[in-house]
Amino acid sequence: MDWLKRLLRGHGDGHRATYADGGHHGRDRRGGHGGHGGHGAAGEHHGWGRGDAHRADTHAPPRDVSCATCGAPNAAGARYCIRCGSVQRGRACVRCEATLPADALFCPACGTRADAR
User: pLDDT of 68-116, one tens digit each?
Assistant: First the structure.
């Protein structure tokens, strides 16, 4: 049975001792929870979730914008359509002035109807 106790060290009856010491699932000395999903000494996140998962990806490339004339995907900063050559004029929201995709019915930033004036 000694091999079983060593295998399950920190679990079962021995778990109470580690809990009181602030071990596996107990509280750490700072008053927070130890164990899974906490924060390390330097404040870094560890555990199942990622601490930066809620942040927007600021390094993502700009999305393609559909041409208002032919619907072809164009780079966000393109001045002319790569398929039909028409000028790519970006529309802006009348309320918040956010750039609207050519096929947008509502502003993605504030929800105002795109054709509202």
Answer: 789 899 888 888 999 999 988 767 888 998 888 878 899 999 999 988 6
Cα 23 to Cα 105: distance, rounded to the nearest angstrom: 54
Indicate the number of domains in the chain. 1
What pLDDT is stored for residue 100 in this prediction? 83
Distance of CA 59 to the CA centre of its chain: 12
How far apart, in whole angstroms, are the C-alpha atoms of residue 9 and residue 46? 22
* 12-30 per-residue burial string, b: 16 or more CB within 10 A, e: under 16: eeebeebbeebbeebeeee
Tell me whether residue 45 is in a domain: no
Could you list the residue range(s) of the whole structural domain that residue 18 is in?
1-38
